[in-house]
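Entries read sequence, tokenised fold; example below:

***
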Amino acid sequence: MSLSIRPAHPVFAGEVSAIDISQKLDQEQVAAIEAGMDRYAVLVFRDQQLTDDQQLEFSRNFGELEVTLAGQMAKPEDRRLGDRLELGDISNLTARNELRAREDRSRMYALANRLWHSDASFRAIGAGYTLLHGRVIPRKGGNTEFADMRAAYDALDASMKAEVESLVCEHSIVFSREQIGFSDYAPGNEERLRPVQHRLVITHPVSGRKSLYLSSHIGGIVDWPVPEARAFIRDLMEHATQRQFVYAHEWRVNDLVMWDNRTVMHRARPFNDLKEVRDLRRTSIKGTGLMVEAVPAQAA
């Protein structure tokens, strides 16, 4: 049976059925998923009981895996999932599988995931697809919300489209973390924290649709005063995250959600993380061939 996709939201997002992604996929199935991503930007696969190895294998159907920044910056003894840096630990657990304390440094860092963002936009080429698998889900809260940046662009008036068309933004993980007061970075990571530049409006290589490339990682606009740039981006973020553009995913155990960072932003929602476990595993596809190219050096 061929896989099928039904809409999960009036604007974007689809729920996939009739496929077991724990098994090896054929080329037709991979092509159908990619076509679904081009159309819906977010795909939900329910009831997919995956091991870490199976999640990694499924993810590799769509490109080379990206190494997580948090994993790179963490000390080996602090990595709960070991040295498999392609597998992101999206949980509130320590390396000993204990709940993180309120003042835990990693917890403070991860709180910025509640801000709207696009994965790895702080790199010269941001992430392509992200795949997140739910292992342990809290009883209440902990949803993930997605905002369609294609629909948000389409809803801009003509004068605003003309204004944003040529803008270039500066992205850094530092900008997003400073919004919640986090600045505790270990020495030796200066190069990873350096701002990079991306165009604010990008074009999907298959559909040809334009979208906004927004993220909480944006801290400036090239050739603009910082206060003006940040006020402008804040207004644009408010526009882009209106409820008609947002799909809220209510997690179930063994859900896998896959999204395209070219065309959506996302954010985590709060839950009682001091008393309940939320354990998800993330894989991301490197942006080469999937993501908007970085701004050429001569345009910087």
In short: The chain is about 25% helix and 20% strand. Residues 289-294 have pLDDT under 50 and may be disordered.
